[in-house]
Structures
1.
Amino acid sequence: MTAKRGCGAAGTESKGGLDKDLRGFLKTNSDIVTVIAKPVSIDDVGALSAQSENPILFENIKEYPDFRMCDILVKHRRHQCRALGVKEADYLATLAKRLRMPPRGLSTVKTGPVKEIKLLGDQADLGKLPIPFHTDIEKYPYITAMNIVKDPETGFYNSSHAGTNPVGPRRGLASFITPHTQIIMRKYLAQGKDQMPIALCFGLHPAYEIMANYSGLHMDLWGEMEMVGTIMDMDIEMVACETVDLTVPAHAEIIVEGTVNLKDLFDAREIIAPTMYALPKNQRLPELHVSAITMRADRPIYRNHQVVPNTDHQVLPRLCHEAVLYNRLCEMGLTVHDVRFPTWGAALSCIIQIEYPRQGFVNDALMQCMGAPWLNTKMVVAVSPDTNIDDPGDVYFAMATRVDPDRDIFVVPNTRANFGDPSGLPLDDLYPHRTTGKIGIDATVKPRHNLADFERAWPKNWGKVHLSDYLD
Ligand SMILES: [Mn+2]
C-alpha cells in the first residue's frame, strides 16, 4: 500500500543528478540488477528475461561476444521509480507533475560515447547486432529500440518504440502504428519527399524510454525528446548523425541510422501485440534502409524488450498514460494513490486506487479512464488503498468481495477496441480496427457498507515471522 498524499503536491526532487546513460543507471542501481555471467545463447535470452522480475543484464551472449544485453528495466513500480530518482511512493505524482511542465529542449554536443565506432554503408549490417527472436511463431527477429523521427514542419523530435523486423542486412520492415509517426510521414510526403530520416536508439537511461512512449496532444508544442530532460530534471545531450539529418542521444549504446521509404508498403507477418496475441495479422508496412550504425567501443549494451509474457512490453508504453490519467483524476478532486496498467493486465486493463469521497465519484473516475484517448482501458477497476495493487490475487479478491454486480458494474457498448484484442469485433473493410464494449468495476469499500465487515482476519504474528528463517 502506498502512502497517502495530496494530488499534484508530491515531491518532485531527485536525490542528486540521474545518470546520463544506461550503463551508469545499471551501475547506480546494481542492487536490483540480476547479472548473468554464464554464457547464454541469443535464442534463450527472451525466455530467460521473461522469468526475471528485476532488471537483467546478460554479460556473455554466445553468438555476439562483443555485446551485452539487458531487459526488464521498468516492469514494476519499485524499478520505475529508479528512472526518475525518486521514492516509489512519489514516482507517479512526480512523473504526472513533470509532464505538465514546459519542455526543457535538447542541447547539441560535438561528439559522444555512441560515436566510438562508426560503421557506414555496407559496413552497417544489422546482422552484426544481437537482435533476438521474441517468440516461437515469428519468422524474423524483432528490434524494439526507441526510434526518433523529426517533424519536418516544426523540427520537433517525435519518438516511439514501434518495432522493426530486419529482413536483410540493411533493410527492415517497421511497424509504425503510432498515429504521430503516421502524421509525420504524411507531412514529408506533402513536402514532395519520398524518404524520411529515422534513427533507432538502443540502450538509453530508462527515463528516455518512459518519455518516448508518451501519446497525447503535444506535436504543436514539443516532441517527446524535448521532454526527456524535463522528466529527468537534467540536460539531454544530442549528437549529429553521420548519414541523415537528425541528432541522436550522445550517450546511447548503439544507434542505427536510416531512411524510411514513404512510397511503398510491403507485406509483413503478424507482430506480437502487448496483449500477447499475434495481432494484427497481415500488415502492410513501410521499409527502412540502414545507412549507418554507430556504437560504443566497450561491449555496447543492446537493450531488448522481450514482448511476451508479462514483461516491460505490457507496461512501458502505458507509463505516461498512467500519469495522464492520474492528472485527470486529481482534477476531479480525488485523492489518488495509484493508477496502474499492470503487466498482468494484457495492456487492456487499468486499476485506479483512490479514496472514496462520496457516491457518484467512482463511476465518474472509471469513465475518465474508460474514455481515455488510447485503446488500453477496456476494463477499469477501482480499488481502495488497502488493496495491494501489485498483487493480482488481492485485486481479484477485491472484485470478488467488494462488488455488488447489481450496483457496482457498468458496461458501455460499442467503443473502439484495441488492435490486439481478439475479443473485439472486426470492422468490415477497416482492418485492423475493431469495436468492443468497456466495463467499469467499482471494487472499493463503500460507505453504504458496514466498514467493520471489511476487516480481515490474519494469522497471529502475520508479517512478523518468516518461513525463510526456518528453512535450512
Ligand atoms: Mn508523439
2.
Amino acid sequence: MSSNKTVDKYNLLDRIEEGLEAIGKTPANVTIEDLAPVDEFHVGGLDVVKPLVRHLQVGTGGAVVDLGSGSGGPARFIARETGAHVQGIDLSPEVVETGNELSKWMGFSDQVGLDVGDACATPYETAKFDAAISIHVHMFLEEPQKLYDEAFRLLRSGGRFVVFDPVVRTKEGFAYPVPWAADAATDNICDEGTLKAMAVAAGFNFAQCIDCNDIALQWFEEVFQRAIDAGGLPPLGPHLVAGPDFPLLAMNAYANLQGGQISMLQFVFTKP
Ligand SMILES: C[S@@+](CC[C@H](N)C(=O)[O-])C[C@H]1O[C@@H](n2cnc3c(N)ncnc32)[C@H](O)[C@@H]1O
C-alpha cells in the first residue's frame, strides 16, 4: 500500500493496490491488461476498445482527447497501441488523481494526461486534436448535445469522433437501477437516432455504427463468472469504482441488454 498519501486509506487508488496485491502484482510490474477489469470502466472492457482504436486513424505524434475519461484505461491503451498523445478529462477528482498515478506506475505520464473538468466545456484549444472518443458518458448528461458540440470544436477538419454507448430501444420492461441511473426519472439515456442527430447537429458526418451487443453480453458473462470463481467480488473489478451495489447494477444492465431494452453501439463520426 502507498505510504505517502494523505487521503482516506479506502480511496480508489488504495483499493486498486489491495486488489493488485491479491493477484500477486505490484505497481512496478502491473500491465494495462491486469488493470483492465477496473480502469476500463465500461461494458466490454478492452474487447471494445481494440476495434475502437482502429477507427481513430491516429499514429505516433497524433493527439486524441477522451471526453469523460474515468481513470484512463482507454486512454492508456490507445496511447500504447497508436503512439499518440491522449488527453483525458473527467469530472471526478478521485478518478483523475488515481488515473494519473496509474499512468506513472506504467510509464505513461508523458503520453497520457488526465485533467479534472467538464467534458462539455473543456479548457483545450479549438482544433487541437486529431481524434476524440467518449465512452459511456452521454447518459450522465442533462444536455448531451453539448458533449457533441465540444467534440466538434476540439477536432481538426478530418478528425474522427468515436462514441461507444448504450442506447435505449424501449423503456418497456426496463430494469432499474442501472450503472448510470437510479430510476427512469433520472435516466438521460438516448436512442440511436437521437445520438446520431446530435452529432449531425454539431456539424459531424455520420460514418459508421457498429453493433457491440455480442461482445457486451460475453463481457457481462465473464464478469459474473469471475465473481463465481472468486466466491464473491474478485480482487480487481468495476465494483472498486462503482461500489458494493455494482452486482445489482450490472445484473440489471445485462437484463436490459438481453431483453432488448438497450443496445451497445459504437458510432464513428467525422468532422468535414
Ligand atoms: C461509466 S464512466 C466511463 C469512464 C471511461 N470513459 C471508461 O470507459 O473507462 C463515466 C464517466 O463519465 C464521467 N462524467 C460524467 N459527466 C461528466 C462530465 N460532464 N464531464 C466529464 N466527465 C463526466 C464520470 O465522472 C465517469 O468517470
